[in-house]
Amino acid sequence: MGKKKMIHKNEIKEAVRRHYGEIAAQAKGEGAASCCPASSCCTPEEACSAEALYSPEDLAGLPSSVTEVTLGCGNPTAIAGLKPGEVVLDLGSGGGIDLFLAAQKVGPTGKAIGLDMTQEMIDLAKKNARKVRVQNVEFHLGEMEDMPLEDESIDVIISNCVINLSPDKDRVFAEAYRVLKPGGRMVISDLVAEGDLPPAVRRSMEAWVGCVAGALDKREYLEKIEAAGFIDLKTRVGGSPVEERAGADIYLRVVHIDVEAYKPA
Ligand SMILES: C[S@@+](CC[C@H](N)C(=O)[O-])C[C@H]1O[C@@H](n2cnc3c(N)ncnc32)[C@H](O)[C@@H]1O
């Protein structure tokens, strides 16, 4: 038996950054964007289209350069109960769709902050923000495992199909807890596994960047959130396009989850 090669955390980060950088760079060429490349978090294409994830009201007023780059698996702003005046942080904000929806909901007295580790995504989201003419957004280039944000500065954290991409989810949840104000909430859409994924899948870089290899077992994922200090967890599993990826057994074990969790007041 040959020795199995372990993947280093930094290799995963670099592969993820390169992959999403390429998607963002493609999206910059008008009409050239392939919103759902074969190894993105959301295949097949029709299941991850903006129309499949978002309501017509959500999409009204958003230009195609925003709606074409939807790489998520849920619609966190639809379930986050955002209120005027709140400060929202979107982890892995990508092309900005959830950020712009959050900005509308919190209004001019609130703020929506996008954090993404890929420079090309930040550039794309800034360009999109100018098109959407949204004022109350702010962008930070940085990693969610080491957020460039003050302690207790955020009311609500949202994230859409990003945390599975992290090789260090304990750090992500610890950082989320640190930056949230007491009583603040985290409302995230992500992918988790139901049961074991084959070891070869866990070691595949293509499966990492495609949001499969990093999908933790559902129970482990929720335990990590609780271990970071979050309470009152509410979850909803399923309804995901991922479950419908017919033909590939492994995809049947990776499902969409929405989680709402609170930092104690
Ligand atoms: C699957 S896309 C989702 C983008 C967006 N949330 C959406 O729904 O369209 C993942 C995004 O997360 C970013 N990302 C991945 N790992 C990250 C990390 N550790 N820290 C910050 N951003 C990260 C990527 O650069 C990419 O823009």
Layout: helices, strands, pairs:
Blueprint: H1 9-28, H2 50-53, H3 56-59, H4 64-67, H5 76-79, E1 87-91, H6 97-106, E2 111-116, H7 119-132, E3 137-141, E4 154-160, H8 169-179, E5 180-193, H9 199-202, H10 205-209, H11 218-227, E6 231-237, H12 249-252, E7 254-262
Helix pairs in contact: 1-7, 8-11
The protein binds S-adenosylmethionine.
Account of the 3D structure:
The chain is α/β, with parallel strands linked by helices. It has a single domain (9-262), classed as Vaccinia Virus protein VP39 (Rossmann fold, 3-Layer(aba) Sandwich), CATH 3.40.50.150. It contains 12 helices and 7 strands. It has helices at 9-28, 50-53, 56-59, 64-67, 76-79, 97-106, 119-132, 169-179, 199-202, 205-209, 218-227, 249-252, and strands spanning 87-91, 111-116, 137-141, 154-160, 180-193, 231-237, 254-262. Strands 3-2-1-4-5-7-6 form a 7-stranded mixed beta sheet, with helices on both faces. Helix 1 runs parallel beside helix 7 (119-132) and helix 8 (169-179) packs across helix 11 (218-227). It starts with 8 loop residues before the first helix and ends with a strand. Residues 29-39 and 240-247 have low confidence and may be disordered. S-adenosylmethionine (SAM) binds at residues 16, 20, 41, 70-72, 92-95, 97-98, 115-118, 121, 143-145, 160-162, 165-166.
